[in-house]
Amino acid sequence: MEASEITWTLLSLFFIGLAYFSAFAFVAGLLWKLAVYLRTPMPYPHSLTPGAKTEGQAILRVLGDVTIFPNLFKADKWLWAGAWVFHAALASVLFRHLRYFTYPVPGLVLYMEPVALFFGSLFGAAILFLFWRRLGLPRTLYISNIPDYFVLVLLGLVAATGLAVSYWLHVNIVDVKGFIVGLMTFHPVEIPRHPLFLLHLFFVLVLMLYFPFSKLLHVGGILFSPSRHEPFTVQGNGSRSPDFMKR
Amino acid sequence: MSKFDETPIIKDPAINGVLKPPKLREHASAEVRCYPSKPKDTAAIDLPTERVPDWQERAIAKFGELLEKNQALRVYMDICARCGACTDKCQFYLGTGDPQNFPVARAELLRKVYRRYFTPAGLFPDLGDAADLDEEMLQKWYTYFYQCSECRRCSVFCPYGIDTAEITIAAREIMASIGVSTKYVTEVVAKVYQTGNNLGIPPAAWKDNCEFLEEDVQAETGHPIRFPVDVQGADVLLVPPSADNFANTDTMIGYGKLFHYLGVNWTTSTYCNEGGNFGLFLNFANLKKVNARILQAARDLGVKTIIWGECGHAWRAGIMTPALNGPMDAFDPPYPYHISQYIVDMLHKGAFDGRIDKSANDDYLVTYHDPCNSARAGYLIEEPREIIRAVCNRFVEMPEGTIREKTFCCGAGNGLLTDEIMPIRMAGGKPRALAVKHTGANYLATVCAICKAQLPESMHYWDVPVKVGGVIDLLARALKL
């Protein structure tokens, strides 16, 4: 066997191993963390008021938090815009990645084709904005540590390499899908021989591995934030009618 | 104090009564610290009298125990993204400029230790996210967790609802468990067990005060208004902050006039003449124990119901009574019941129809300061306003963003009302002072004894000429007996 063939084989083994390891760490780590949150009780009702008085209102509150970030809107309009665009673009990019995982590919994923570059670029732009914000404002600069920059750089590299292999140095999508489906069906095949794609994959796997040990736990963790998911009332929901009054 | 921004506040339409975030002044408030507790007080409240020798291990063990027992702490240790939304929300940062008073920076003091001992990030301390619980860190905890008034303003703006109060409460509990606490808070809790109230007023003096009040009010109004003490079988046990009997007597007179007018058979208790719960600022065991005294007093006197007076943290603890001390089924609903809610209920029943002379308060332009605890930990936002509107012609709100659930702490809440940290109290009181100045009001109404003690000092300091008083005080002035 040629030396380069050996290199590709070793690389394949490395990526296959890392993919399974990262996927396991991501899923198991996240589930374990969420299970810990779920089973940890509150010693007293969490009384941040005014707030949700019924379970229904609390569920709506959490749904709102997850989709439109109302508290952030109250706090800082620019940050809200940056964060919302970032998350929405990320969601649409992730959704479009279904075409590498599913057969047949859902119609909506195909339908999004013309706007994919727009969402991808928006994602990248939002990362740049959030990065600038950390460095550019004295208050956020003060609270930012290496892990904050690390996550943004990692996401930026994921976005840049992803955009590059989609719109510039094209990777063969059939190879990519073959590799991914191989992993998912536990019949792994050789990696696509496209260095930039492999970089993209590497950054994604590092992100997945890092996820359950990082501040990225706000995904999922927010569902267990007592000030958001717990309804609270002082005297129940009934009307007050004190009957000890004499006059 | 010179390290802080001492720019006088002015009534400037351009800034709209809302304080702008100041320049960062690192370590500006690092030297402002509460006096440490005294052994005689800590001994009286089941805490170590001095720092335990193996304090690090004990603190980490306590931390682990709290993580198992408190979902809020557990989740809030992990999910902060350090987005910075909270950084300009804390009155103690706005007043001091010390970035360690950013809610996120304060919480990171605990999170760094959490990551060091409870997560894999502890293996990489050099990345800046994990730190040993060493002497330096403990000193930072002691300084900055006693520069937080647990007021929860930051949590209103946090995208995940992270409640810094829960974090401060946990940090203070850990510190208390290893023998690190403040003189002010421990002294007050010890006084409650000894005398029944935070001010240390003995039963005889309480009764004397009440008799003096009766004579005064009789002379002033001509009505035999009573301030009953320890009346067996009364209908209502009033649990006021003890300061109402001592300093805020207009508020005490307000309760008396109200109950006299309504013909309610009420009483206070010398076993528990205090709603204010300093256990909340110290540890869970004392929170429960102090609050249990209210139920005990009510049972001993055989009252039908309990009414909480104008006290912020009394209400914050009070609304948790069923969770802390067991069901209140033995009492008449509604429970727990706040005096402001009671007055509003009576208003709705028409109990004051035609008997309120609003013009009696025409000399006041009234504005209302939402105490952090009643607004953000007790649903009391509309009631005090409804009462003020019913008894005053001239009411003005402070700027949006400084009231209701976004209210600023007075600057001395939850364990900070002590003179040795006066610079912090005045700096923390600055956003509120600016908002009051903006209204031009000459009466600052509020429903919290801590606020009533702090605000006159902070308003004077920032040169805002305003009288501070209770909401019920206004009702009492307008009520035609």
> Helix- and strand-based class of chain B?
mainly alpha
Oligomer: heterodimer
CATH-derived architecture of chain A: Up-down Bundle
Main sheet of chain B?
4 strands, parallel
Which structural class should the secondary elements of chain A be placed in? mainly alpha
Cα-atom Rg of chain A, whole angstroms?
23 Å
Explain what the structure shows:
- The complex is a heterodimer of chains A (about 250) and B (about 475).
- Chain A contains 12 helices and no strands.
- Chain A has about 250 residues and is mostly helical.
- Chain A has a single domain (about 50-230), classed as Transmembrane di-heme cytochromes, Chain C (Fumarate Reductase Cytochrome B subunit), CATH 1.20.950.
- In chain A, helix 6 (about 115-135) runs antiparallel to helix 8.
- Chain B is mainly alpha-helical and about 475 residues long.
- Chain B has 3 domains: about 50-180, Orthogonal Bundle (Fumarate Reductase Iron-sulfur Protein, Chain B, domain 2); about 195-350, no CATH class; about 360-480, Rossmann fold, CATH 3.40.50.
- Chain B is about 45% helix and about 5% strand.
- Chain B has 22 helices and 7 strands.
- In chain B, the strands form 2 sheets. Chain B has a 4-stranded parallel sheet with strand order 2-1-3-4. A 3-stranded parallel sheet of chain B has the order 5-6-7, sandwiched between helices.
- In chain B, helix 21 (about 450-460) links the parallel strand 6 (about 445) and strand 7 (about 465-470).
- Classes of the chains: A mainly alpha (about 250), B mainly alpha (about 475).
- Chains A and B meet through helix 1, helix 3, helix 7, helix 8 and helix 12 of A and helix 2, helix 3, helix 5, helix 7 and helix 16 of B.
